[in-house]
Amino acid sequence: MTSHDRAIRLLVVGAVNVDLVVETDRLPGPGETVVGPTVTRHGGGKGANAAVAAARAGAEVRYCGAVGSDDTGAQALAELRDSGVDVTDVAVLDGVATGMALIVVDPQGENQIAVGAGANAALDAESVHAAVERAAGWAGCVLVSTEIPAAAVAAAVTTAAARGIRCVVNPAPVLPSTVDLLTSGPVFTPNASELRDLHRLIIDDRDAPDVPAAERATAVASRTGAPVLVTLGAQGVLIADPVSEVVALPAGQVARVVDTTGAGDTFNGVFAAALAGGSTVVDAARRGVAAASLSVASVGARTGMPSGEEIRGAL
Ligand code: ADP
User: Fold this and answer.
1) Where is the Carbohydrate kinase PfkB domain (predicted)?
2) Of 215, 221, 291, 280, which is closest to residue 252 (Cα–Cα)?
3) Side by side, which strands form the sheet with 17-23?
C-alpha cells in the first residue's frame, strides 16, 4: 500500500479468541494427561487476526465481534487496540467467557485444538447490522469470517450488499446456511477443504472426489457472479472469476517455514484491505499472498504479520 494508506478503510466481522499453547512430547490420548514445560498465550480468532493483519499492512480497520466482560476479554481488546484496530463495534457481554482455543503441539508440529466459542457464539445479528450500517460511506470493504452465528454472518453480508459495500467472506468454517449468501455475491476465499465443502453445497459431487480445485472454484464463482480465491498453502492462490480464465498466483519463497497458523487470516486481511483501497482482485490477491508467505516465517498467528513496507518489498 502507498502513502494514501490512511484512506484504506476496512470493517472486519468475525471471531476473537485467546490461544493457549502447550508444547508436549506427544499429543494426549482420551483420558490422558501429558505435561509440557511451558504455556504460551497468543491473540487469535480468524476475524481478529485478519483485522490485525490489515492494520499492520497500513489500513484503517474497525473490528466487530464479541468478548466476555472478563479479564481475558479486556486483554484481547487491549491487544487489538495496540495493533491499531478500532474496537468500538465489539460487544462486551456479561455472563459469557471470551472465546478460547486450547492447543497442544507435538515436536512434529502436529496439533490438537479445542475451541470454546464463548462470546463469539453470542454475537447477535443486530449488533453486526448496526456496525455495517455505521461503516456505510466509510469502509471500502467488509470482511466476514464465519466462526460466529449464521445469523450474524448473514447480517453482515446482506447489509453490505444493501449498502453497496464490497464484501469478502472467508468461509471458515462453511456453514449449511452459507448457500443462502451466494445470491448476495460476496467474494469467497476458501482454503482447499473449505472449497470442497462450499462446492458440495451447490453441486452434489460425492461421486466425483477428484474434481480439480479450479473447476470447483469456477462452479462457485458462476453461482455468486463474483471471484472465488482459493488459498492452497505452499501452492499459493487460485483465482476463479465468472468472466475470465483461472489465474494461479504462486506463494512467496520462504527460507524456513516456522508456523503456518494464521497464514489464511493474513491473506484475508491484506487482500480485503487492498480491495478496500481500490486494487483489482488480482493485485489485491498478490499483496495478500506476499503478506501471508512472509507471515509463516515466525511463531504465532500474529507475530509474523508484515508491515506495508515489508509487503511492498516482497512484491
Ligand atoms: P489457511 O490457513 O486458511 O488454511 P493456507 O494454508 O492456504 O490458508 O495459506 C494461506 C496463504 O499463506 C497461502 O496462499 C500462501 O500465500 C501462504 N502460505 C501458507 N503456507 C505457506 C508455505 N508453506 N510457504 C509459503 N507460503 C505459504
Assistant:
1) 9-306
2) 291
3) 39-44, 17-23, 100-105, 111-116
Identified catalytic residue from 204, 207, 265, 283: 265
In the structure grid, which three cell numbers stand for residue 92, read together?
Answer: 462486551
Does the annotation list 98 as a binding residue? no
- Domain ranges for the chain, please list them: 5-25+37-314
Cβ of 314 below 6 Å from ligand 1: no
Amino acid at site 133 = E
290 ligand 1 Cβ < 6 A: no
What cell was used for 70? 472478563
Closest to 213 in 3D by CA, of 240, 187, 234, 189: 240
Does the 5-25+37-314 domain belong in CATH 3.20.20.70? no
Is the CB–ligand 1 distance for residue 248 below 6 Å?
no
Q: Is 265 a catalytic residue?
A: yes
Complex confidence, ipTM:
0.96
Q: Say which residue, 243 or 131, is predicted with more confidence.
A: 131
For residue 139, give the C-alpha cell. 469502509
